[in-house]
Amino acid sequence: MPVPENLNIVPFISVENMMDLVIAVGTETFLLELAGYIEDDFRRWESFDKVPRVASHSRDGVIELMPTSDGRLYGFKYVNGHPKNTRSGRQTVTAFGVLSDVDSGYPLLLSEMTILTALRTAATSAVAARYLAPRNARTMALIGNGAQSEFQALAFKTLLGVDHLRLYDIDPAATDRCRRNLDRFGFRIEACRSAEQAVEGAEIITTVTADKQNATILTDNMVGAGVHINAVGGDCPGKTELHRDILLRSDIFVEFPPQTRIEGEIQQLAAGHPVTELWRVIAGELPGRRSETQVTLFDSVGFATEDFSALRYVRDKISGSRYFNQLDLLADPDEPRDLFGMLLRRQAALAAA
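Structure for Ornithine cyclodeaminase, as requested:
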């Protein structure tokens, strides 16, 4: 059987490529289509290899690897979380990812995932909210107005029709930036002076703060009956946003319990506290929201299948497009066993140049 040509070349999506792709598709369309991939992969949850992410924690942050496979494709993401980075002009979260062919082990795609992670996190939040939020919810409190905030707002607008935002951040400049960035998207936006003010009248509460500590962004008296909480900020051991009493009166939905019990809001609860896996709701095995008074909580920590979905989506979108570079990533000798000969031939070519 003939060997395909250009086995050394892997499509690479740079940050510039990703921005151009999102702009060409349209941010809201991108979020909507990406949500479809995420939802489809949740429906076939049982076909995936699943392990908690491999985390290396330090005093100032965490570096993680997030792998999964469906038996045909393998994907992983490298991602960090360092809240102090903003003080030196760096991003709190950066990431890149790889999608590979299981049959050969060859990479099929290398992509930036700093922007893509923000998009997939927001899309996952909105997918969960379609099953858990009050019907026809239009008002969302957005507490924490950092790098993820605009993506969350747009995903909820696109998938659920949320058009009224109540913003709060301990840094008023962050709220001002968020409001300016979202002005063109048709929201009614209120900047609030406190988290308590932000949640007034909100049917959905999204918390997405970055500090690496056990914080109390929401107290029990701030959460009324019938609210859906989208808790995004708690995503590693020792980092939470909600008072424990809120958890005790909420129906809690999670991605992968072995990971969420370590990293999510439910790290505050006993190991056996009942939770519902989101995939079972999406697959129709279990109910999501059951009543108008039910308090639902999506304890979102991010799971590898969501990154897999995102990589799968962008690989499909770049096919036949200009939104990638050809990266000479893999050694491809003329004869597969002659790797050293490939090095010698390169040496001879350099000497002759």
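Residues 19 and 115 are 8 Å apart (CA to CA).
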